[in-house]
């Protein structure tokens, strides 16, 4: 599981990481977002992206400010409907800190973090007085953009991932390709209109949105299931595991790069 753990001598100190500081998650307007790009002091990771970039939309288009440091994507997306901040670390440890105002969505983002071993930080303030639609969609768009940033040139990764996750009677298969080409095939049959207060139509819209901005080919197949909560949660778990597989380093592709030593051995 520690595919990207550098040797002890090169593990960046916590202070060298991009902080989850108030500069990202405090209340402020996007025009005041301060990026503090910091490179690791050193890294043995062959998959490393070290070119921070800022992209700011103009004139009616959503303002998206993003940065990519290491395998971390940081995105702030601001529209008249939502303000979404995402920090995604592909080489995390499963830490989830997501507050979207939609409890069930937070629970699903926890699944992505926990089972993908990603660090997922999401803060969203949206027009929930209307419904969950815009917030659900814009969170997914921002996560997809963060994933795009974090993946960088995608060198050295497995690229493909697939996983079938059972959750009691539910069984959901997810296959994905970090191809750069957005495509979603979705075949869930969720029997109820809502889980808690969450509109189950939003599951497909979440993945379609994430696919669109990340450049991912994603197939979701329900193999079994009766309970709506089980079906959706199994989907997010399978997605997390498939994404983890796809984003991890392929040691044969990387040859002798330092990130393939030791912990990358397959047994
Ligand atoms: Mn929509």
From TrEMBL:
Residues 11-20, 42-53 have a biased composition (Low complexity). It comes from Stephania cephalantha. It comes from the Eukaryota. GO terms for cellular component: chloroplast. Residues 1-20, 30-64 are annotated as: Disordered. GO terms for molecular function: imidazoleglycerol-phosphate dehydratase activity. The keyword Lyase applies. CDD domains: IGPD. Its EC number is 4.2.1.19. The keyword Amino-acid biosynthesis applies. SUPFAM superfamilies: Ribosomal protein S5 domain 2-like (SSF54211). This is Imidazoleglycerol-phosphate dehydratase. It is an enzyme of class 4 (lyase). Pathway: Amino-acid biosynthesis; L-histidine biosynthesis; L-histidine from 5-phospho-alpha-D-ribose 1-diphosphate: step 6/9. Residues 54-64 have a biased composition (Polar residues). Belongs to the imidazoleglycerol-phosphate dehydratase family. It catalyses: D-erythro-1-(imidazol-4-yl)glycerol 3-phosphate = 3-(imidazol-4-yl)-2-oxopropyl phosphate + H2O. Keywords: Amino-acid biosynthesis, Histidine biosynthesis, Lyase. It is found in: Plastid, Chloroplast. InterPro entries: IGPD_sf, ImidazoleglycerolP_deHydtase, ImidazoleglycerP_deHydtase_CS, Ribosomal_Su5_D2-typ_SF. Residues 1-10 have a biased composition (Pro residues). GO terms for biological process: L-histidine biosynthetic process.
